[in-house]
């Protein structure tokens, strides 16, 4: 065998071997009670402008419901179509499988947005289906988009 120091190295091999250095445990630093003003302002601002925890949990539940059911049905449709075709119960054209699965997965994607927009931002949970909350939140979102577009046009004209 060739001496390892004299042989040609592959492009990904290290050129020199590094000696292992023993790792020292990290020093424990006592937390100081004094916080910087910038860090405090940033934390306070994100707490004020963020989504409240109650509303966030409500959004997650609605998104899971309005997206999870259609997505689950989309996956179940593949299994059902497979069983029907593999047992020769009857012939199913591929465009039917595609259309049904596309419909269910599309409803799952739409359900994500509906789950977010149909969530009440008030203390009360709102209605079961969330249609009044959806209309209110969508109108607020459209108003913000129009305001941002108007601001961008005003800044571009100057």
Automatic annotation (TrEMBL):
Residues 1-14 have a biased composition (Basic and acidic residues). Keywords: Membrane, Transmembrane, Transmembrane helix. The chain crosses the membrane at residues 63-83, 95-117. The keyword Transport does not apply. Residues 1-49 are annotated as: Disordered. Signal peptide: none annotated. The keyword Transmembrane applies. Coiled coil: none annotated. This is Sll0933 protein. It comes from Synechocystis sp. (strain ATCC 27184 / PCC 6803 / Kazusa).
């Amino acid at each position: 065998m060739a001496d390892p120091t004299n042989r040609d190295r592959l492009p990904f091999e290290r050129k020199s071997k590094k000696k292992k250095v023993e790792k020292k445990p990290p020093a424990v630093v006592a937390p100081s009670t004094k916080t910087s003003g910038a860090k405090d302002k940033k934390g306070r601002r994100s707490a004020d402008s963020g989504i409240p925890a109650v509303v966030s949990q409500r959004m997650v539940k609605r998104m899971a419901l309005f997206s999870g059911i259609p997505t689950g049905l989309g996956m179940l449709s593949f299994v059902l179509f497979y069983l029907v075709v593999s047992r020769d119960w009857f012939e199913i054209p591929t465009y039917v499988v595609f259309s049904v699965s596309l419909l269910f997965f599309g409803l799952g994607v739409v359900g994500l947005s509906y789950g977010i927009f149909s969530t009440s931002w008030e203390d009360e949970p709102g209605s079961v289906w969330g249609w009044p909350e959806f209309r209110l939140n969508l109108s607020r979102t459209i108003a913000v988009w129009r305001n941002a577009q108007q601001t961008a046009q005003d800044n571009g004209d100057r």
